[in-house]
Amino acid sequence: MFRLMPKETAYFDLFEKSAKNLIQAAQLLEETMKDYGRIQENANRLERIEHEGDQITHEIMAKMNRTFITPIDREDIHQLASALDDVLDFIEAVTERMVLYKIPRVTPQAQQIATVIRRQAEEINKVIPRLREMNHATIMEHCIEINRLENEGDRLLREAVVQLFDGGGNPLDVMKWRELYDLLETATDKCEDVAVAIEGIVLKNA
Amino acid sequence: MFRLMPKETAYFDLFEKSAKNLIQAAQLLEETMKDYGRIQENANRLERIEHEGDQITHEIMAKMNRTFITPIDREDIHQLASALDDVLDFIEAVTERMVLYKIPRVTPQAQQIATVIRRQAEEINKVIPRLREMNHATIMEHCIEINRLENEGDRLLREAVVQLFDGGGNPLDVMKWRELYDLLETATDKCEDVAVAIEGIVLKNA
Amino acid sequence: MFRLMPKETAYFDLFEKSAKNLIQAAQLLEETMKDYGRIQENANRLERIEHEGDQITHEIMAKMNRTFITPIDREDIHQLASALDDVLDFIEAVTERMVLYKIPRVTPQAQQIATVIRRQAEEINKVIPRLREMNHATIMEHCIEINRLENEGDRLLREAVVQLFDGGGNPLDVMKWRELYDLLETATDKCEDVAVAIEGIVLKNA
Fold first, then answer.
1. I need a surface site. Which of C74, C83, C92, C97 has the fewest CB within 10 A?
2. Which domains occur in chain B, in start order?
3. Side-chain half-sphere of B162: how many Cα atoms within 13 Å?
4. Contact: C178, A175; criterion CB under 8 Å
5. Which candidate from B65, B101, B175 shows the least CB-CB separation from A204?
6. What is the rounded CA–CA span in Å between residue B180 and residue C52?
């Protein structure tokens, strides 16, 4: 017997699983920035969450490569799964690098940007389940909010970089923080890529 | 009534609009490097041009997602539109970063590389309108010139980086310029990506 | 007369040529790290190998754009050819940058990472010929080994970066090595991308 429906909803299940995993990671990043004493413990937890995310991504890609007919265009499945995976990778990279670089304390801007990323992840977590019914207006609202947050993150990052170079810190510390801000910026950018992938799907299917 | 033709030329119109926007940005970058006193004013203008570019890119992508039949392969439209958008983003990023980093003056190499980028943008602006008639020989000539200019830019960037590290500047200034040269290099690389996208289109359609 | 077979094997021939070119480059990188006195000579040789690689990649892409039916999905051909090209580019960038930055001697970690890259290239060189018969089990074994080596490279790179920032070197030297480690890391990542592309092909065709 050839059943099409179970396969069709499986992608949506996997994307939701991926988004739930992502919001956990983003909350943990925000908590770490607020309660920096737990950096080592949280970095370890984030590493496990990131592995879990890798497995979900792998499952989506494998399913896509095995099946001929997909409920969403293959290229869109690929784009969305990759973007979700990338956000997670960059969130995890931030805490890993903070441990490696023995960063003694966080900056206020890093805290604020982590909050922006957590709010973007929340929007992603809200919008992904809406792909099942493809409600154009609701989905676009969340995507616009993700983009607005990316602009807010950009503004914070510009502020942070100005302070970093004006602050008279020693060059090695400036180098480390320049890299950390770059990772945070890329995380917010990748959230925007998630929104772009979702917009593409909605425009094709609405 | 179903009219196919107006839709078919619309992509070419939008790509030309995108290329015209790009040449404006590239000219402004070159002018800024020659008359650095106008950096703040020109950075603001470039920000507006970049927003305009975002809208054109968005229009191309939205049209592609809404229409079933396209005059050029969808993946090629996507690749060309993204590459054009990327060049613009990196040109804008250079002036934005120069303002943020309070760069007091430009280096001769930065001037020369900006000229290379302006010349690449001119080639792009000449070659894009040729996509309408798909004249293989003419189009390839411009693409080869874009690649030749990328090699010239590469040579200048290598020189610039050698001088930067040999120059005995303070580490924070070296860090800032290393980043600026990286943005300039990526701008020339993205021009080459435009040429690669165009070559792909021509090979399929000629 | 319409002959399909010669065209079908041509892609496999080109991918094997690309993999053979890559293993030469990776061996040369490893040798350079062990016998650093030959850096200038080897950097020149690597530049020629990289040009040769560009031509093979160009040949694959041009063939793909000219032909309508391909033995492997076009997107997969594109992904595999690009990933192979990227590994080569980053290997070449390492030696080019070492010359530009006048690096006087190599670190033990750079040596070890170069060995990891050479072993990844060897796996790639073994697995590519297996695409002809699409033997799922054998191919996956090599892909898993490429990924395992990437994890080993990651561990070495983390160690290297910790020592770099703890080592009390002068900031400009730290900056140069931070960049070199980044290039080495990207080379191992791109080897993993080759494995991902190959896995995708096998899952679709096995």
1. C74
2. 5-205 (1.20.58.220)
3. 12
4. yes
5. B65
6. 30
